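Incident log, entry 3
Record: AI-2E family transporter (394 residues)
Problem: checksum mismatch between cached and fresh output.
Input:
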Amino acid sequence: MSHIHQLHTTLAGPRPKKPPEKVDELKAVEKLTGRLWWISLGIWVCVGLLALYTLYIGRNLFMPILVAGFAYLTLRPVVRAMSRIGIPSGVSAAGIMLVIATIVGTIGYVLSGPAQDMLEQVPGSMPEVKEKLGFIFDHLETVNQATEDISETADAENITAEEKPIPVEVKQPAWTTTSPLIAGTGNAVSFVSIAAALLFFLMAAGDSLVLTVVTALPSFASKRRFIEVLESVQDALSSYLAWVTCINACLGVCVGTAMWLLGMPSPLLWGVAAMLLNFVPLVGALVGIAMVFFVALVSFEHASFAFVVAGTYATLTTLEGQFITPMLLGKSMKLSSVLVFLSIVIWGWMWGMLGVFLAVPILISVVMVMDKLEATSPVNAMLNGSVGKTAHPD
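Fresh output:
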C-alpha cells in the first residue's frame, strides 16, 4: 500500500492544502452561526414570554375566543357536511346551537335537584365528617398545637411585654359590590355569551371567512400552507375530542354503575359528573375522588367504606387514563406526558380550571402548526420527537 501511495503522489503530486485564510473564514462562519442560533433562540423565548403575559393579562377576552375557535374547528366538518346536502350555513349554525343548548339544559335540569340536595347537606355534615375522620384530625391538631407552642415560645423570648403589638381586627361588610359570588356569576355569564355568539357567527359564516383569509395571503405557497395547517388542526381536534367524548361517556356509565352497586346516592349524578370532570386532565379525576369520598363518608356509617368508594372511582379513572385512552387514540395522538403536564401547569396557572381544560387542545394545535410550518427551532424538534412520527415515517 505504501508503494501505491508513493506512486500516486509522484504522478498526481501532493494534495493541495487549504490556505490559512480559508480555514479562518470557516471558523469565523461557524462561530457566527452558533451566535445567531443562540440569538434566535433568545428572541423566540422572549416572544413566547411576551405572548404568555399578554394572554394572562387579557384572559377574560382570550378565553371565550379560544373556546369558540376550538368549538368551531371541531364542528366545522358537520357544517360543511350539511352545506353539501343543501342546508345553508346559517340554518346549520342555528340548529347546532339549538342542539347544544337542549343537551346542556336537559343535563342541568335532570341533575339540578340531586346536586342541590347534596349542597344543602354539606354545612350540616361537617361535624359528622370531622367525627368519622377524628383519627386524622387528632394527629393534625397535635402537630398544629406543637407548632404554635414553639412559635409562641420564640416570640416570648424576643419580644418584651411593652413591645407586644396590639391586635387589630378588620371586619369586612356583609355585602359588597365586589362579592366573589357576584363577580364570578358575571364573568361566567359574559364568558358563555361571548363564546356562544362568536361560535354561532363563525359557523354561520361557513367557509367565507377562510376564503377571505386565503385571498389576502400573498403567494400560492402561503395559501396552500394555511389550508394545510387549518385542515391539520381541525382533523386533530375533531378526532381528539370525538374519541375523548366517547371514552368519557363510557367512563361515566362505568362510574355510575359502580356507584349504584356500592349503594351511593344519586348514581346518575356521579356518572355524569365523572364524564364531565374527565375532560379536565388530572385535576378532574382528583376532584371526583374527593367528592365521592366526602359523600360516602356522610352517607355510610363506617368511614372505611368511603375509602372503598373513592378507591373504586380512582381505579376506574386510572384504567381509563393509563390504558384505554392511549390504546384507542393511538400513537398519532400520543403526546409526551411531560409536555402535557407542563401545558396543564402553565395554562392552569394563567387561566385557572378552564386553562386546565384547554391545555391539551392548545398543545395539539401548537404541535400541528409547528409540524406543518416546518420550523427549525429546538421547540419544534422537541415536539416532533413525541408527535407526528406517523405522518413522517422517514
